[in-house]
Specification:
2 copies of one chain form a homodimer. The first copy, chain A, is mainly beta and about 160 residues long. Chain A has one helix at about 40-45, and strands at about 10, 35-40, 50-55, 65-70, 75-80, 85, 90, 95-100, 110, 120-125, 130-135, 140-145, 150. In chain A, the strands form 3 sheets. Chain A has a 5-stranded antiparallel β-sheet with strand order 2-3-10-5-8. A 4-stranded antiparallel β-sheet of chain A has the order 4-11-12-13, with no helix packed on it. A 3-stranded antiparallel β-sheet of chain A has the order 7-6-9, with no helix packed on it. In chain A, strand 12 (about 140-145) and strand 13 form a beta hairpin. Chain A is globular and about 45 Å long. The interface of A and B includes residues 43, 72 and 97 of A.
């Protein structure tokens, strides 16, 4: 049955932003200042994948550069000109461009807003069980325990 | 390892449209004339979900009205004003609006372009195993056999 409390459709920009700015432990959470996520899939109760409308203020980043073992990711640029950083180098993106990051492939990806204007993009990621994340540039690793993301140092010590 | 043949990023509108206009049997396949899908996720080898950039000419439709048992679906309107038809009635959408259709919920959904302008939207759907589709308005039912969608009449007879 349809949950009667759920809307049929919404204006994406009108969805309230996520209240927790980042799941990362410090010192990484503070590095996500300037990033704002609206969790669009959650509005409709989607469970198999998430879709965020994400806004990056000038100078901010999408995430630590990372790759997933199980989760595919996809981005579509709506506004602005972010720089996509991958193991292949840097690629300037613009509205109407998209990129995908297949689970288990690639050394890591990250968007950086080096422009003076806001960047807005859609990001999609599935919720495959047993996912882990690798961060090539930072002393952090992550795994999803079924409920939430957990983090530790690369030597196994907790944050 | 990254497949070296895959691009880092692409302009979505520059991806070649799918050559097969519809998977439906007749008489339904012909009803999808005016619909064009660019399979963006496939460009990057994504396997857990698909993302299409879909264009509806005036008078055309996204699909037969349907719902899925396993697959979540999500749409985000980029251009134009499609009408979303669900069991709750009709909702006029516009750019920046989105909707989601949770697996196993809802009596069926469909976009119809009743305007005189082109509609362009992103559609996301996951590839959960064992998915089936229900069509409330038409004598057709569908199941995914792991490789492709298969169709039959509601009395079980083949198309």
């Amino acid at each position: 049955m349809t949950d009667e409390k759920r809307p049929v459709a919404v204006l994406a920009a009108g969805v309230a932003p996520r209240t927790k700015p980042s799941n990362y432990p410090e010192p990484f959470a503070s590095q996500m200042a300037g990033r704002e996520k609206r969790q669009l899939g959650d509005v409709f109760g989607l469970g198999n994948f998430g879709v965020n409308l994400t806004r990056l203020a000038p100078g901010s980043v999408s995430a630590l550069r990372h790759s997933h073992t199980r989760q595919d990711e996809f981005i579509y640029i709506l506004e602005g000109t972010p720089t996509l950083i991958t193991e292949a180098g840097e690629t300037l993106l613009s509205p109407g461009m998209c990129a995908g990051f297949k689970a288990g492939e690639g050394g890591g990806h990250q968007l950086v807003n080096r422009s003076n204007a806001v960047v807005v993009y859609l990001e999609v990621g599935d919720r495959s069980a047993g996912d882990t994340a690798f961060y090539p540039d930072d002393d952090i690793e992550a795994w999803h325990d079924g409920d939430s993301w957990r983090f530790r140092h690369k030597n196994g010590e907790p944050y």
